[in-house]
Amino acid sequence: MQNHSKLLDIGVIGLGVMGKNLALNIADNHYRVAAFDLDNDKVNALLAQERQERLTGQPQRITGCHNLSEMLSNLTRPRILVLSVPAGEPVDGVCQSLIDAGIEADDIVIDTGNSLWTDTVAREAHYAGQFIFFSCAVSGGEMGARFGPSLMPSGDINAWEHIKPIWQAIAAKVDATTGLPIERQEPGNPVTEGEPCTTYIGPAGAGHYVKMVHNGIEYADMQLICEAYQLLSDTCGMSAIEVSAVFSRWNQGSLNSYLMEISAEVLAQVDPLTDKPLVEMILDKAGQKGTGLWTAVSSLQIGTPAPTIAEAVYARAMSTQKTQRQQLSQCLAGPSKAALIGSERTTFIEQLENALYCAKIACYAQGFQLMAMMATERGWQLDFAEIAKIWRAGCIIRAKFLQSISEAYQVAQTQGVELSNLLMAESFSTALSTKQLDWRSAVAQAVLSGVPVPCVGSALAYYDSYRCDTLPANLLQGQRDFFGAHSFERVDTPVGEKYHLNWSHKPRTLVKL
Ligand SMILES: NC(=O)C1=CN([C@@H]2O[C@H](COP(=O)(O)OP(=O)(O)OC[C@H]3O[C@@H](n4cnc5c(N)ncnc54)[C@H](OP(=O)(O)O)[C@@H]3O)[C@@H](O)[C@H]2O)C=CC1
Ligand SMILES: O=C(CO)[C@H](O)[C@H](O)COP(=O)(O)O
């Protein structure tokens, strides 16, 4: 017979950066946590931090476990187990260990890692009958996990109803009136007011797909800011601290975002070893764990253009080609460096701010369009107004801008129209139309100065492609028909009717297929 008063509410497995902080966040919200990691030092470190943060007189809120059997016997039924381990094989490794430890059919295992969404779909089916495999993608990094992340749960709806109170408690919160994050980062004093940044996304895989696209947008947004940094350095001769000041100013306006804020902070940081700007001492080779790549691959597979996200992935790949770049920088010619000063410089900075805003709209449009396409393919009922809402706080791409996206989807819902692309929302099309000349000037300046702007530039090409009623794909279809008899449709006959011109025999005759 279990002594229910001693049983704990939830288990956390994997106490790295995210798991440790999720455990503390859950404990702050008055749930009793059982914690396990393969590395017992991590369990002890968590217990020490919990002890240190615990209010005087408060009972211990986290119990360390030596193995998974001990964890299972410590938890109330149905058990709720949160996995925070690296994506891929470790997830199945822990699941198998839980089966070996005696997990039961109605226990709920929640994968909070950045798993590939198709793995999540497969796992739900694979573990059915042994336990309920649920997923909840998390964004917000270390501090988000600790004080309020954005949470994207998906899978079994009954499992969601069961965990919902915990999820709503630990999620980031937004002020319902302003749409701005309620930021309080105090151990033992969680934010309980406001709208929680979590909503049920849909069936298995949907949450991880949405998180994957979130990360694709994150890659693009980060790269856009990096391109602005390089442009300001190379064309205006600005120091890191000067660029930081520009970014801080931009962060007060329409470009307000967490990524802009932290970029300004990174640029202002002095290297403790050399007293130089730290950014100048960081090697320019970017890492990646795969979610941006998955987003780009998904867009290619499904045939929805997300060029700015793909270019952001390529930009990271290009950054790793350091040796080749060093060699080629010595032999490939480029223009002489621009040295913008005075009013020219002021104008350029204004143009660049507008260019960044336009490119940001384009990259979010790509991400949302991609989610819409996959939702149609998989039969998911994704609520984009809600998805934009839960990204307003807690997550890495949190920004004022997300409120405008949510409103654009809400307006479309009210009007009963489908917003198939964010560029169609009046608020965004108006902003783009007003600022597009500045966007072009900034890209032109970059091209003339020889500064690479793969994301700002590809976003502009995306925008211009959508402005084109006719693209040169007519010629492309002609080429395909010429060399491979691949056929084409005509502008003056019904859609789907195929034609082929007999190119190799003159006089060339047209055949309706
Ligand atoms: N860091 C971030 O900003 C974010 C990360 N994520 C995702 O969250 C997940 C966790 O990330 P993060 O916390 O950064 O990673 P860490 O590497 O910091 O932590 C992972 C933890 O899992 C432990 N672990 C690995 N295998 C097992 C196992 N079989 N059983 C028990 N514990 C195990 C590791 O132990 P050991 O080190 O001893 O091997 C480590 O303590 C990843 O999927 C990541 O992509 C999601 C959002 C943000
Ligand atoms: O999911 C995240 C935030 O939303 C992580 O920070 C993500 O792991 C970062 O990805 P990468 O290491 O590829 O830059």
UniProtKB/TrEMBL annotation:
Reactions catalysed, as given in the entry: 6-phospho-D-gluconate + NADP(+) = D-ribulose 5-phosphate + CO2 + NADPH
This enzyme's EC code(s): 1.1.1.44
UniProt KW keywords: Gluconate utilization, NADP, Oxidoreductase, Pentose shunt
Pathway the protein contributes to: Carbohydrate degradation; pentose phosphate pathway; D-ribulose 5-phosphate from D-glucose 6-phosphate (oxidative stage): step 3/3
SUPFAM superfamilies cross-referenced by the UniProt entry: 6-phosphogluconate dehydrogenase C-terminal domain-like, NAD(P)-binding Rossmann-fold domains
Chain ranges of the 6-phosphogluconate dehydrogenase C-terminal domain: 207-504
A Pfam family it matches: NAD_binding_2
Keyword NADP: yes
InterPro entries associated with the record: 6-PGluconate_DH-like_C_sf, 6PGD_dom2, 6PGDH_C, 6PGDH_Gnd/GntZ, 6PGDH_NADP-bd, 6PGdom_BS, NAD(P)-bd_dom_sf, Pgluconate_DH
Domain of life: Bacteria
Enzyme class: oxidoreductase
KW Oxidoreductase (keyword) present: yes
Oligomeric and partner information: Homodimer.
Cross-referenced NCBIfam families: PRK09287.1 (NF006765)
Family statement: Belongs to the 6-phosphogluconate dehydrogenase family.
Function: Catalyzes the oxidative decarboxylation of 6-phosphogluconate to ribulose 5-phosphate and CO(2), with concomitant reduction of NADP to NADPH.
Stated name of the protein: 6-phosphogluconate dehydrogenase, decarboxylating
Taxonomic lineage of the native organism: Bacteria, Pseudomonadati, Pseudomonadota, Gammaproteobacteria, Alteromonadales
